[in-house]
Specification:
Blueprint (H helix, E strand, L loop, with lengths): L2 H12 L33 H33 L11 H17 L1 H30 L3 H20 L3 H29 L1
Length: about 200
């Protein structure tokens, strides 16, 4: 293999994460001309590596909203079948609502209990859909989605403080840390793109 071709293949591998991002100046490929050997195929930007790290942090922070929504749904389905297990990263508000409906169901009887369990599951579906929506809008680079989602998740975490559930409270803190990191990465990305 020709050393120029080998060099360009290596360069391609180093910046493959930036090619096709739609961002100007972060990687550009040139097609080889009629039978000519491939020349230096990528014009590397010195900020490409930093851009890639920020993009990863931003998307990672936004994806926490999806995890919260999914695990809250799993928690509700598990509780629907009377299993005494749950994920600590789920939402506290859905667990409180489930507990309230369970108490009411025990007082009113079994026939009304199924209706209340269904109502509880519908409430969880709504809240999970809301958090999934925040994740979707955060990925689309809407700052408000990060801010509103983080505020609601912080308030939700306070429920675990009242119940003295330190493990769930700690996971809420961890999730908020990564969401906030994603939000900060988004601001830095937009700043880089304007330069």
């Amino acid at each position: 293999m020709d050393s120029a071709v080998a060099g360009s293949v290596g360069t391609l591998g180093r910046v493959a994460g930036t090619v096709g991002t739609g961002q100007r100046g972060y990687g550009r490929m040139e097609q080889p001309n009629d039978g000519q050997e491939m020349q230096e195929a990528v014009v590397a930007d010195p900020h490409a590596e930093e851009y890639g790290k920020l993009e990863k942090a931003f998307r990672g922070g936004a994806s926490w909203f999806y995890w919260i929504a999914a695990l809250s749904l799993v928690n509700s389905v598990v509780h629907l079948f009377d299993v005494d297990r749950s994920f600590v990263i789920g939402l506290g508000i859905t667990q409180v609502f489930e507990a309230i409906t369970l108490v009411i169901a025990e007082e009113t009887g079994a026939e009304f209990g199924m209706v209340l369990k269904g109502l509880s599951l519908c409430f969880t579906l709504f809240v999970a859909a809301l958090f999934a929506f925040f994740g979707y809008m955060a990925i689309k680079r809407h700052h408000w989605a990060f801010i509103v989602g983080m505020i609601l998740y912080l308030l939700d975490g306070l429920l675990f403080l009242i119940g003295f559930d330190i493990l769930s409270l700690g996971f809420h803190g961890l999730a908020l840390f990564f969401m906030f990191g994603g939000y900060n990465a988004l601001k830095k990305l937009e700043s880089m793109e304007q330069c």
